[in-house]
Design goal:
Layout: H1 36-48, H2 50-59, H3 70-84, H4 91-100, H5 104-107, H6 109-117, H7 126-154, H8 160-178, H9 186-201, H10 215-221, E1 229-234, H11 240-254, E2 259-263, H12 268-280, H13 295-310, E3 313-316, H14 323-337, E4 341-345, H15 355-358, H16 361-379, E5 383-388, H17 392-395, H18 408-414, E6 417-423, H19 431-436, E7 440-448, E8 454-461, E9 466-469
Parallel strand pairs: 1-5, 1-6, 2-3, 2-4, 4-5
Antiparallel strand pairs: 6-7, 7-8, 8-9
Helix pairs in contact: 1-2, 1-3, 1-7, 7-8, 8-14, 11-12, 12-13, 14-16, 16-18
Length: 477
């Protein structure tokens, strides 16, 4: 069998080395992780059976950068080009192609090309050797990323949170780049789809997403599915925070699913206070100096307190939080607590620290909206985001529209579902109208990628800051 590697005649052909010093000790030099033998074996198999192995390497997202030896990367790049052009690949024509491009000597000459060609007697171990090559590349990528991060940290950047986000993004990019998703055949999925239909028909399968606790809303969207973003928008004082927290309560307390809430407007203490009193059905208006609890109220508050203490609910009340911080914290909570749901109050109070966002508020909102959708897809969990409407409803007597969303273009595009919360009582002209419309509320589902649009009737219990499902039905517009 041929030797493990060629003899290089110049620095251009030599393997790339990384100088890594510890404690500034002179001479403490270490080479980057590499696997020269498996690299030669992979190339040998591709040269002998290009139709089988080059295509497989492409499917595995192998690139010239995966090779530690520059000559190997150059050879693979030429093999890829010939394969894509459907040109014949055999030793004689390959040698001529490299010579015509003045690359043959970089490879090590005709003899070295022949050595690589004959290096692997069989391609039986191609997948194993390919895995080794990719693993060594990942290790080198980690070292390179960390080295860049260390260098950047020594420069003492002004925006430290932004720098930390960049460091984290680099690491996650390495992980994402290592994952290969193969294509699926339709015929392999038909059986699964038919099984789902049969289970629904037999009542053996529930909704696909996480239920919100509002049956009419769940029936329209099938629950909140992983990777989806649900926008709840309303004018100020309409109760959108209460509605969101009612959903959070159902998911975290009733269902026991780990949930994360980002509150840019209210403190964590206020959020928990609302949750406790709403669950205990204790009106906030009763909380006055010297008030006395009845036996029933005390029992309900104690029960609600225990349920909330046991709930896997996490609250972050950082004001004006950046999309980068949300991304970083959500990733950590997904890793540490396996969170299944995120709620954010609210979108227009968030910030983006990119340079492009500094010049335009609309651009900033677009980056935040796209960033939140990306988080939902990356972590494969649903996200509810509250948003503010402009003054359009006041000009039409209160009826909201999707176009009333502030900086609405990007939000409308990124959201999988948009619900516009509406209470007629808020727009009543006099006390009589206010009493007649008291408690009547609607969630206008203006966008729904997974089902119909229409109105979800609700009842708002003002003293408890709580929305309940209503028995009345409203036909979709």
């Amino acid at each position: 069998m041929a030797s493990d590697g060629p003899t290089y005649k110049d620095d251009k052909s030599a393997p790339r080395l990384q100088v890594f010093k510890q404690d500034d000790a002179p001479g403490n030099i270490r080479a980057l992780p590499s696997a020269v033998g498996p690299e030669r074996s992979v190339l040998s198999s591709m040269m002998q059976e290009p139709a089988n192995f080059i295509g497989h390497a492409v499917e595995e997202h192998l690139t010239p950068d995966h090779f530690y030896v520059p000559a190997h990367g150059t050879l693979y790049k030429v093999l890829l080009e010939l394969y894509e052009k459907d040109r014949p690949i055999e030793l004689v024509s390959l040698t001529q192609t490299l010579a015509d491009r003045s690359l043959l000597e970089n490879i090590g000459g005709p003899s070295e090309l022949t050595n690589i060609y004959t290096y692997a007697p069989t391609g039986a171990h191609f997948d194993y050797h390919l895995g080794i090559v990719k693993s060594k590349f990942l290790l080198r990528s980690v070292i390179s990323s960390c080295t860049e991060s260390i260098s950047g940290a020594y420069e003492e950047p002004d925006d430290v949170p932004g720098f930390l986000d960049q460091v984290e993004q680099k690491v996650f990019a390495i992980k994402e780049g290592s994952e290969v998703q193969g294509e699926l055949k339709a015929k392999d999925l038909i059986g699964e789809v038919l099984e789902i239909i049969e289970q629904f028909a037999a009542g053996e399968r529930g909704m696909q997403g996480i239920p919100t606790g509002y049956p009419d809303l769940d029936s329209m969207g099938g629950g909140m599915k992983p990777g989806e973003m649900f926008i709840i928008a309303a004018r100020p004082s309409m109760g959108k925070t209460s509605f969101m927290m009612n959903i959070v309560e159902h998911i975290a307390v009733d269902l026991g699913l780990p949930s994360l809430v980002f509150s840019c407007e209210m403190s964590a203490l206020q959020i928990v206070q609302r949750l406790l009193f709403a669950r205990a059905k204790f009106p906030l208006s009763n909380l006055k100096p010297g008030f006395q609890l009845t036996r029933g109220e005390l029992q309900r508050i104690q029960t609600a307190s225990k349920e909330l203490m046991d709930a896997p609910l996490f609250i972050d009340d950082t004001p004006a939080i950046s999309i980068g911080d949300v991304r970083a914290k959500a990733r950590r909570k997904k890793r540490d607590e396996d969170i299944q749901f995120i709620a954010i109050d609210y979108l227009q109070l968030m910030r983006s620290k990119s340079r492009q966002a500094e010049s335009s508020r609309e651009r900033e909102i677009a980056e935040i909206s796209a960033g939140l959708k990306a988080i939902a897809k990356e972590l494969q969990i649903p996200i509810i985001v509250l948003a503010q409407l402009n003054r359009g409803p006041e000009q039409r007597g209160g009826t909201p529209r999707m176009s009333d969303l502030r900086e609405s273009g990007s939000i409308e595009q990124d959201a999988d579902m948009i619900g516009l919360l509406y209470r007629q009582e808020y727009y009543a002209d006099n006390e009589e109208e206010r009493e007649e419309s008291g408690g009547i509320a609607e969630l206008v589902v203006a966008k729904n990628r997974n089902g119909p649009t229409g109105n979800v009737p609700l009842t708002f219990i003002k003293e408890l800051m709580r929305f309940e499902s209503s028995d009345r039905r409203v036909d979709p517009e």
